[in-house]
Amino acid sequence: MTPPPEELVRPGECHVWTARAVSVRASGAPALLKLLDAGERARYEAFLRDEPRGLYLTAHALLRDLVGAQLDLDPAEPSFAAVCRTCTSGGHGKPVLPGSPLHLSLSHAGDQVAVALTYAGPVGVDIEEIGRVGDPPLTVLSAEERAAYDRLPAGERAGGFTRYWARKEAVLKATGDGLSVDPALLTVSAPDAPAALLSWAERAQPHPPVRLYDVPAPDDYAAAVAVLGDGCRVVRHEVAYDGDGVLRRPRRAGDGVLRRPRRAGD
Length: 266
Ligand SMILES: CC(C)(COP(=O)(O)OP(=O)(O)OC[C@H]1O[C@@H](n2cnc3c(N)ncnc32)[C@H](O)[C@@H]1OP(=O)(O)O)[C@@H](O)C(=O)NCCC(=O)NCCS
Known about the structure:
The chain is an alpha+beta fold. The chain contains five helices and twelve strands.
């Protein structure tokens, strides 16, 4: 299926798609499953519970759908690899598409998935469910972040912590460090301020500048995307899969403007 041109990622843009995970309880979503390669299918099969299976399947099928549309390939065709910064055992780490200038990242939490694609530089996207953990692990905050967190009214703390966490993890996923780096070494801007990486202790000039953006997310979620390189325009889409596992074409939602995906027959 050829996507409308506005769905394609252009230079200077970073596109982020979010979707609700499909349920694999009844049908197993065969149309999505057939997009996965053998390794992805093995990981899918290894989950013991339906919810993480559905999340994993939706995230990886959506990534394939979008990369296929972007590069005019069959979605099952791309051969992804994973790069770990701390070991060489393989099979885990930052996802990449070898030989392509397209950078990608994915995230899943609660019942939501997020996928980011850009040509602007290495990218990290993170989506987090607000209030998922009862007592937020405040040790991931730097001293400066902790002071700002402590000043938040009680009713804003769960959302504030989740905003911090999504921003920090987006940065660590863009660099490929993941949680091998202590998130408390990074200081990002306060939850009510525009997203920015303010400092990174123990890392002088690690890579191109980190550009950090909040991404509009469904209620009860916070999401952020980080790109290493020049600033870019973030374009957000919300997409959905039909019951049979067919992606309803994503719709350009503008910068932060949320629109519902088209329904069949629109
Ligand atoms: C990557 C990590 C930050 C993900 O956190 P999370 O909130 O649980 O998960 P998310 O849903 O947001 O992201 C998961 C996706 O991030 C990607 N990812 C994994 N490692 C990554 C890394 N180092 N950098 C960027 N992206 C990574 C994968 O695509 C993964 O999806 P998959 O598991 O379905 O394949 C965290 O799990 C981590 O850092 N793990 C590795 C820790 C490490 O480096 N250990 C040493 C190994 S030798």
